[in-house]
Amino acid sequence: MPELPEVEALREFLDEHLAGRVVERVLPLAVSVLKTYDPPLGALEGQRAGATDRHGKFLAIRIGELHLVTHLARAGWLRWQDALPDEPPRPGKGPLALRVALDGGGGFDLTEAGTQKRLAVYVVRDPQEVPGIARLGPDPLADGFDRDAFAALLAGERRQIKGVLRDQGVIAGIGNAYSDEILHAAKVSPFKLAASFDEEQVTHLYEAVRRTLREAVGRAHGVAAGNLKAEKKSGLRVHGRDGEPCPVCGDTVRSVSFADSSLQYCPTCQTGGRPLADRRLSRLLK
Asked: Which of the four, 77, 80, 143, 237, has the lowest number of CB atoms within 10 Å?
């Protein structure tokens, strides 16, 4: 799933390549992708694209007086093309969900792999009209997101820290991969209760959040849209690396599986050398 660093890189890419171009056609190819009907997609045609904003994992492209908002979900992606194919795309064929054609040729496709179709597109007058954006917590890289603001989010939270970091209503933009990376950098168990952190641990975790995300944004800066997935994977230390040596201590990275996802962690760095049992069977490690 694209998370804050990749979506931020896509925002920068679109600001460079899309802003100032006129939208000629917008073609929805998947029935499930469009979540709004007023204003219609056709209202974007003939309008000039402006800046692209990021709201957590959402991209909001200003087109005329409207905004084309998308959430790429788990398997979605944005594919830029300097020259679009001459033949019009066929609905329901392959991963293509929506195509935006621009003046002078070129444009971009929104695609989604797999059978679970969760990619979402909205046409709105204000991005805050999108329910997922309206409920977002603070952006962890915003200037005003300081250590005290972070501490206030954890206070009274009886959930495990892994789930808190991934909750978009608490903090915007962090998903499964970067929550693993943050907790590894902070040397914290993913099962530790958020409210159990002392003052020093809160500070350490806050610094890990900012440092991990900033470094990932830095790695993604200037990378072409088509190469961002590979860049993300290459920079991960523990997520998706089950069975590999931890780059910090050399212990074997382990995994805990859930119904539709998994987490990765280093026992030596994060849990005092103790392997975590399956969440459905284990007691919480504090």
From this structure: 143
By the 10 Å C-beta count (0-12 exposed, 13-18 middle, 19+ buried), 272 is classed as exposed
User: The tokens of 100 are what?
Assistant: 């935006």
Amino acid at 258: F
| Per-residue pLDDT at 278 | 65
Distance CA 135, CA 142 (A): 17
Measured torsion, CA atoms of residues 155, 160, 166, 169, in degrees rounded to the nearest 10: -40
Q: What is the pTM of this model?
A: 0.92
Q: Which residues contact 101 (CB under 8 A, 6 or more apart)?
A: 23, 24, 25, 26, 27, 84, 107
Side-chain half-sphere CA neighbours of 222 within 13 A = 2
- Check residues 251 and 282 and name the one with the higher pLDDT: 251
Q: Copy the structure tokens of residue 47.
A: 């309008």
